[in-house]
Amino acid sequence: MTDNSDDQSSSTSQASLRIDVLTTFPELFADREGCVLATSIPARARRAGVAEYHATDIRSFATGKHQKTDDRPFGGGPGMVMLCQPLWDAVQAVEAADPRPATRILLTPQGVPLTQAMVEELAKKPRLLLISGHYEGIDERVIDKLAPLEISIGDYVLSGGEVAALVLIDAIVRLLPGALGHEESAAEDSFSPTAPDSKGRGGGERLLDCPHYTRPREWMGVEVPPVLMSGDHAAVDRWRLEQRRERTAKRRPDLLKKNPTQN
Ligand code: ADE
Questions:
Q1: DSSP-based three-state secondary structure for 226
Q2: In this structure, which long-range contacts are made by residues 8-13, counting pairs with CB atoms below 8 Å and at least 24 apart in sequence?
Q3: Which residues 6+ apart lie within 8 Å of 133 measured at CB?
Q4: Which of 157, 167, 169 gets mutated to test ligand 1 (max ligand atoms within 8 A of its CB)?
Q5: Closest Cα to atom 6 of ligand 1
């Protein structure tokens, strides 16, 4: 890493995915107890050596006495706009720190809405460079020159891209082989494509998850669905798929329109 970087990686060998974050709040990405990337699956991915995280403070590339990273917008209006130069220099320095080619991503409400299919594609890359703006916006000229993928995590506005970057990192690293324990599987998640049936038919539908139950068998007078106690694994699989389709039709009919034809 560069001297300007707040290197938060603890692994020495190369992970299958390197994630760099450019931010004015690098502490949000720290490998410290209570921080998101030091907790649960993102921490396990780091420990397993499948993901490495490096946060770099854009401010350390700011020039001038006050190390300014933003200024008032030309044309007037509220808020501040991130300057071109510190961000441009930060990207050049961070990319030069590792030969793996980086996919540049800008987190912004103006971006394409994030989907599980995009997350799956990003999880196959060797390196991601996430840019989190924390102002009214970023000078459009540096966005044009950097030409990042622009990604939104939803149609609402956050105070900055950092929380969005953490959401994206979490969604990606849980798909890396070795990040989840044996007992967990990302293949069963909501939005993950369903598997073909035992005869190799169908599959590929992106559905919401089915309901889940655990002990006790009866709680407040409500029994667990009997099929789950039947020991018939094929019947359980059929029931779960039906539940997923029903739930998706009721709650997210928009998803069904995007799915391949059901068998
Ligand atoms: N920054 C602010 N709001 C955002 C959003 N909805 N998605 C991604 N980045 C953001």
A1: helix
A2: 8/37, 8/53, 8/54, 8/55, 9/46, 9/52, 9/53, 9/54, 10/46, 11/46, 11/49, 11/52, 13/49
A3: 82, 106, 107, 108, 160, 161
A4: 157
A5: 109
Cα–ligand 1 centroid distance for 228 (angstroms): 40
Q: Quote the tokens at residue 250.
A: 């009721």
Contacts of 260 (CB under 8 A, 6+ apart): 204, 205
Alpha-carbon 58 to chain mean position: 21
Q: How far is the CA of 127 from the centre of ligand 1 (A)?
A: 21
Q: Is the pTM of this model over 0.85?
A: yes
Name the β-bridge partners of 193.
206
Residue nearest to atom 5 of ligand 1 (CA): 109
Q: What is the pLDDT of residues 192-241, one digit of tens each?
A: 899 888 788 888 999 999 999 999 999 999 999 999 999 999 999 999 99
pLDDT of 6 > 50? The answer is no
Nearest atom in ligand 1 to 108's CA: 9
For residue 135, the CA-to-ligand 1 centroid distance in Å is 11
